[in-house]
Write a structure and sequence with these properties.
The structure holds 2 protein chains of 2 kinds.
Chain A lengths: L8 H28 L10 H55 L5 H22 L2 E2 L2 E2 L11 E8 L2 E8 L11 E5 L2 E4 L26 H13 L6 H50 L3 H27 L8
Antiparallel strand pairs in A: 1-2, 3-4, 5-6
Chain B lengths: L5 H28 L9 E7 L3 E2 L4 E2 L3 E8 L3 H31 L17 H17 L4 H64 L4 H15 L4 E6 L2 E9 L7 E4 L2 E2 L7 E7 L19 E7 L26 E2 L7 H14 L10 H20 L4 E2 L35 E2 L10 H7 L8 H40 L3 H37 L1
Antiparallel strand pairs in B: 1-4, 2-3, 5-6, 6-7, 7-8, 9-10, 10-11, 12-13
Classes of the chains: A mainly alpha, B alpha+beta.
């Protein structure tokens, strides 16, 4: 009768030790995955999967950074848009007054209109110096000084404020640039402009060339009205030109807010997809893992039981 | 007419049979008592029929005797076990050492990924957070909080890189010490095997029989030796009872055991694990791990005593500075087996040192990464168009170009939040310009930084993973060859107990024969009396 490999006393125990070791290792690996809910805990568990997950995690951090920057930019863009809408309202009203003041009105009416025009001018100057989070909203990247400087003078018997564009080097024409996705940056901000000291540059109050200068136009109109003098058609036309000029900035700032809002939506969507992708890359199928664990534990228990039975049996027990 | 053996002859046969069965029982007892003795093999009392005697009508047997006691050994299977155990312990050890290196790297991934910081651990997460801090600064360049956040994250990243490198350094030092302990163990085994060679040769000449137990013990030591390194076992050409053991697959040279010589004595070599300068190849002054030079591991063969390795005796030529001939320096090609092979491979090929050009090892890549971060951040921070919060350009290096050893990277001591160059332009654009911070944040996409580190992590992960696969396969092979060898040499309790019963019965029967003959003698004597 043919007999297979001769089995010795060490065969069972060596084989059992090897099998138990393997089962314990599998049990440990599965239990680790189940408890962490992750497919791997180190690169060696799945080098490619680990590297992919690390890349996704890095991209998520970057995308979250873009989102944060975009949300911050939206705050600025909304403040810009609000500022331009306010300015448009003020300049529209100034234009209405100027149009009225071109007609035959008595000096007291003109002076009353001059008082309102003065208030509008103060508001426009105040708007130009508006701050957000302690920074001048329309001050460009220099941003350590008000963009419009205030002085006083008298017009007739009335003491009024005078306004001039800040000519210090800290007020410049550049605006902050925000990166909203990899390699895509947007300039976020508008400046007031400067028309009284080189280098002059364009902004929402002046185009920097003398063609448009709202501050100057409103100041002239106010002074004329406070002096009881009617507005000349030419001065009125200039303010109408100012109205059209501002409309452009309202459009630009509105479009920028809209662009940034869309970018925010897109980034939120990217983050959500990245989160799902990351979960797919790192997560486990819990039902499968638990089934595997149960199967391994069953095998382990069976190996222990059969092993113990075989090991404790001996011919000696049957010999008297 | 038949004569037979006669009463005396038959009595003698009975007595011989008692002796034979007693010896068989003794051998069985020896087997049973060595069932759990490491290295013991099954011994068999070879019982043979005694010579026949012509008794006139034919040949009559004269009983049995123990012709020899042999050990059940297969040279082929023993050689297989030696070879496969050597590979098995290489992968076992390599798996442990490379896993330790992977753990030192400390790279994890977090369970979630939706935060604007990476909450995982390790250098990759540190870099993500560092670039993220620059990104935040770009959004709010005048913020002192964001500026300090950049400095804080830079410090964290530098600490992580330096701590990782330090952890790898400690591991490497431990591995070299372990290799030194293992060479000591190997030399002790060489010495013990040489001593056993001598005992076996003397015993076998004296007794004219095989010294089974001594040979078992020697085989066990040979197998222990094979777990330490790649050995080739041959019979000594002048005395076949003795073994010669050479290292590195070269049977004629590099003999660790040469007959009665072992561990560097006489004509044998002694193996030494030497910490060496990876650039010059010279031995470190105290022959221990040198943090500054980031020691490599070199194995040398020397003659001489254990306490005074006879380096000076082999000085032709002194290459590469240890006083050891190049031929006696072991290289990776012959160190791919055993624990010493794994230690050599991990120290020199996996961990490396980063002090030589184009070093692609773990520590080499870590050093390159630190250099890349330093140079690329400094280039942008310190460029002619970069401006700090004070309106100064060329505001100074962010990281020191020459960090204080053993640091690989450190934030410059003169770097303060106001000196961070967040703005960029031909002239100073003001405090709200963050374009330079954006440029620094975009270093996250540099292939020589984040991607480079992820590749490093993947490399060590792949090494560990492949080693684990090899280890699993090799463990199975070792289990199989051991099982096969046990099927020849192993002791079976059931077999021995069955044999014991057989021999016991035979002994009882032999005793009965003697008793019967005694009665027959009495009958004959009584016949004479009457």
């Amino acid at each position: 009768m043919a007999v297979g490999t001769r089995i010795t006393s060490n065969t069972y125990s060596n084989q059992l030790k090897y099998q138990l070791q393997n089962l314990q290792q599998r049990q440990l690996d599965t239990q680790q995955r189940v408890s962490a809910g992750m497919a791997f805990s180190s690169s060696s568990d799945d080098p490619t999967g680990f590297a992919t997950a690390q890349t996704t995690a890095s991209e998520q951090v970057k995308t979250n950074g873009f989102l944060k920057a975009t949300q911050s930019a939206i705050e600025v863009a909304n403040a810009n848009q609000s500022g331009m809408t306010n300015l448009q309202t003020l300049v529209n009203r100034a234009s209405e007054l100027a149009t009225q003041a071109t007609g035959a009105l008595d000096p007291s009416s003109l002076q009353a209109m001059g008082t309102e025009m003065n208030s509008i001018l103060d508001q426009v100057a105040g708007l130009a110096n508006r701050q957000l989070d302690g920074k001048y909203l329309f001050g460009g990247t220099g941003n350590v000084a008000p963009v419009v400087l205030t002085g006083t003078s008298t017009v007739g018997a009335v003491t009024v404020n005078t306004y001039a564009y800040n000519n210090t080097a800290n007020y410049n024409s550049t605006v902050p640039t925000i990166e909203i996705e990899q390699g895509v940056s947007v300039s976020n901000g508008i400046v007031t402009g400067r028309n009284n000291s080189a280098p002059n540059f364009g902004g929402f109050l002046t185009d920097g060339t003398g063609t448009v200068d709202i501050l100057s136009d409103l100041t002239s109109a106010r002074n004329q009205l406070l002096a009881g003098t009617a507005i000349t058609p030419a001065a009125n036309q200039q303010i109408i030109k100012d109205v059209n000029y501002i409309a452009n900035f309202v459009g630009v700032t509105s479009a920028r807010s809209s662009t940034l809002s869309k970018a925010e939506t897109s980034l939120n969507s990217n983050i959500l997809s990245g989160k799902t992708l990351y979960s797919d890359q790192t997560g486990i199928n819990m039902a499968n893992e638990l089934t595997d664990l149960q199967s391994i534990q069953l095998s382990y228990s069976a190996a222990l039981q059969t092993g113990a039975n075989i090991l404790k049996l001996s011919l000696l027990d049957y010999m008297k | 007419m038949a004569y037979g053996l006669g009463l005396n002859g038959t009595l003698a046969m009975g007595v011989n049979s008692l002796t034979t069965q007693r010896i068989a029982i003794e051998v069985t007892g020896n087997n049973l008592s060595n069932m759990s003795t490491p290295g013991a093999s099954k011994q068999t009392a070879n019982i043979t029929e005694d010579i026949g005697v012509n008794v006139g009508v034919g040949e009559e047997g004269s009983g049995s005797y123990v012709a020899s006691i042999t050990s059940a050994r297969s040279a082929l299977m023993d050689a297989q076990v030696v070879k496969q155990s050597s590979l098995g312990s290489y992968y076992d050890k390599l798996q442990g050492l490379t896993t330790s290196a992977e753990n030192d790297l400390g790279e994890t991934v977090s369970s979630t990924s939706s935060s604007d910081t990476n909450s995982a651990t390790g250098i990759t997460a540190g870099m993500d957070n560092f670039w993220g801090a620059w990104q935040s600064l770009a959004s709010d360049p005048s913020s002192v909080i964001e500026r300090n956040n950049v400095l804080s994250n830079a410090g964290d990243l530098a600490d992580t890189i330096n701590a990782t490198y330090s952890g790898l350094t400690d591991s490497k030092s431990s591995m070299i010490q372990e290799a030194q302990a293992n060479t000591d163990k190997l030399n002790t085994l060489s010495s013990e095997i040489a001593s056993l060679n001598q005992q076996i040769a003397a015993t076998e000449i004296q007794t004219q029989s095989t010294a089974n137990d001594l040979r078992d013990k020697r085989q066990y030591l040979v197998e222990q030796m094979s777990q330490l390194t790649d050995i080739t076992v041959t019979n000594n050409p002048t005395n076949s009872a003795m073994l010669n053991i050479s290292i590195g697959g070269d049977a004629s040279n590099r003999l660790l055991v040469n007959g009665i010589n072992g561990a560097g004595a006489g004509t044998s070599y002694r193996l030494n694990a030497v910490a060496t300068n990876p650039v010059t190849g010279n031995a470190e002054a105290a022959n221990s791990y040198n943090v500054a030079t980031n020691s490599a591991l070199t194995y040398t063969l020397t003659t001489g005593s254990a306490t005074a390795p006879n380096y000076a005796a082999t000085t032709n030529p002194p290459n590469p500075g240890l006083g050891i001939p190049a031929a006696d320096l072991l290289t990776t090609t012959n160190q791919q087996e055993g624990e010493l092979g794994a230690e050599y491979y991990t120290v020199n090929t996996v961990l490396g040192n980063g002090l030589v050009a184009n070093d692609t090892t773990l520590m080499g890549r870590l050093r390159t990464l630190a250099n890349n971060i330093t140079s690329q951040v400094n280039a942008i921070q310190n460029s002619a168009t970069a401006w700090d919060a004070n309106g100064n350009n060329n505001a100074g290096n962010f990281f020191d170009t020459v960090p204080t050893p053993p640091n690989l990277i450190q934030v410059s001591a003169t770097m303060t939040q106001d000196k961070i160059a967040a703005a960029s332009g031909a002239t100073y654009p003001g405090t709200l310009d963050g374009t330079n911070a954006t440029a620094l944040a975009n270093l996250s996409t540099s292939v020589s930084l984040g991607e480079y580190q992820r590749q490093t992590v993947s490399n060590i992960g792949t090494t560990v993973s492949q080693t684990t696969s090899h280890q699993t396969a090799q463990d199975l092979i070792v289990t199989q060859v051991t099982k096969q060898r046990d099927s020849v040499s192993g002791i079976s309790e059931d077999e021995e107990v069955a044999n014991l019963t057989t021999f016991q019965n035979a002994y009882s029967a032999s005793a009965k024969l003697v008793t019967t003959l005694d009665e027959m003698y009495q009958t004959v004597i009584n016949m004479k009396s009457t």
